[in-house]
């Protein structure tokens, strides 16, 4: 397993790196059989330390956790606990469905655009109705079942996930509704 432990304007010492590798290694090996890499980023927000962790599994799923605390070790421990909880839920769902994915998730390339937000001045009329593109990036769209897409969305803590439906080969969307339920768009 590959570890990437970094700090944003914080010096991450050898002791903290060893602690992260030991603790995350234990948590990840307990719940995920074949993790590929782990990325942990430490930063400081006002008086609190922030720890963000991403674990990429060989099945193509990604688990993400973020925690805040006044001490850097406490922030990491809270983050590792959240990550362990997500991985435990993921493993339980896999067992409940009695279906293990024999091959990794297939990813398809797509373009992703960042559009400029509308100007705060409402008095002036826009020159054109086309939005201004600020940035263009490449993104990956996974090929998943609907259940796996919901699981991936919950693991990532994302409000929405675009995926290619394995059964129908069409692009679908799952999202978290305001009432707490999950919505699924199947065009």
From TrEMBL:
UniProt similarity note: Belongs to the HPF/YfiA ribosome-associated protein family. Long HPF subfamily.
Organism (species): Puniceibacterium sediminis
Protein name: Ribosome hibernation promoting factor
Keywords noted in UniProt: Cytoplasm, Translation regulation
Subcellular compartments: Cytoplasm
Xref: Pfam families: Ribosom_S30AE_C, Ribosomal_S30AE
Single annotated GO MF: ribosomal small subunit binding
Record-linked HAMAP family: HPF
Cellular component annotations (GO), alphabetically ordered: cytosolic small ribosomal subunit
Family matches, as CDD domains: RaiA
InterPro entries: HPF/YfiA_ribosome-assoc (IPR050574), HPF_long/plastid (IPR034694), RHF-like (IPR036567), RHF/RaiA (IPR003489), Ribosom_S30AE_C (IPR032528), Ribosom_S30AE_C_sf (IPR038416)
Predominant subcellular localization, coarse grouping: cytoplasm
Assembly information from the UniProt record: Associates exclusively with 100S ribosomes, which are dimers of 70S ribosomes. Interacts with 100S ribosomes.
Role of this protein: Required for dimerization of active 70S ribosomes into 100S ribosomes in stationary phase; 100S ribosomes are translationally inactive and sometimes present during exponential growth.
